[in-house]
């Protein structure tokens, strides 16, 4: 089954809930970046919340999330647009566990640092907002981010499951947002429910679907509005890297040609390498107007 998200209304249409299963895109990330469990869990959680957030926008806006905690995994960089995500971490080889068992995401991310969210709304200047990290568990950090930076009372749950070899075998999460007009009674009901709710990690471990997660949180009182496919997708291309090389300027390219005779550029998001040999570099140099230095 493919990864997907479901969006629903609950509490008399005064709350929105998004629930997603992201197993395949998290596995793709683990495979591409050779992630050890703590790094894989941290990136999976960030990819999941970014996939969900990208589905909260009306148009196809591009979202960039940077988490700069003081733990060894960070920084974590993720991009998302309309359910397509890509990302990478500073250190893919982190595997920390708690003495009582379980993967120590908090220790990997750290609890001193920032979450920065940059939204490219296709206007001249991207919109940026940030919040300090609260716990390093990522779900709690985003709950705090929504309250502080977007002034939306929210609850975020994120979780994943690994097999004995450290391979991620399930992941997902939810975002619950209270909209203006939600009654005190409904808010009290939600708070009570959230306090007694099983953790998102448990739901993921038990093989919940997005509908099951929504059903669990709302006690069956919801209307599904939309279903959206999610995937790991990197739109990089040789053309984009050519533009990157051109932006270095003619002098810099001449120097690369003279000293290295080639340029080998790797995409950080998908690990694909683009090679530019002497002939390619010369062609780029020749594309500058003759008068350019
Ligand atoms: Zn790429």
Tell me what the structure shows.
This protein has 293 residues and is an alpha+beta fold. The protein has two domains: 4-232, Hsp33 domain (3-Layer(bab) Sandwich), CATH 3.55.30; 238-286, CBS domain Like, CATH 3.90.1280.10. Helices cover 34% and strands 29% of the residues. The chain has helices at residues 23-33, 37-54, 105-109, 139-149, 184-196, 200-205, 210-218, 238-246, 250-259, 278-286, and strands at residues 4-10, 15-21, 62-69, 76-81, 84-89, 113-120, 127-132, 154-162, 168-178, 222-229, 231-232, 263-266, 273-276. Strand 1 (4-10) and strand 2 (15-21) form a beta hairpin. The longest helix has 18 residues, at 37-54. The model has no long low-confidence stretch (mean pLDDT 94). The chain binds zinc ion. Zinc ion is lined by residues 234, 236, 267, 269-270, 272. Zinc ion binds next to loops.
SSE layout and pairing:
Layout: E1 4-10, E2 15-21, H1 23-33, H2 37-54, E3 62-69, E4 76-81, E5 84-89, H3 105-109, E6 113-120, E7 127-132, H4 139-149, E8 154-162, E9 168-178, H5 184-196, H6 200-205, H7 210-218, E10 222-229, E11 231-232, H8 238-246, H9 250-259, E12 263-266, E13 273-276, H10 278-286
Parallel strand pairs: 5-11
Antiparallel strand pairs: 1-2, 1-10, 2-9, 3-4, 3-6, 4-5, 6-7, 8-9, 12-13
Helix pairs in contact: 1-2, 9-10
The structure holds zinc ion.
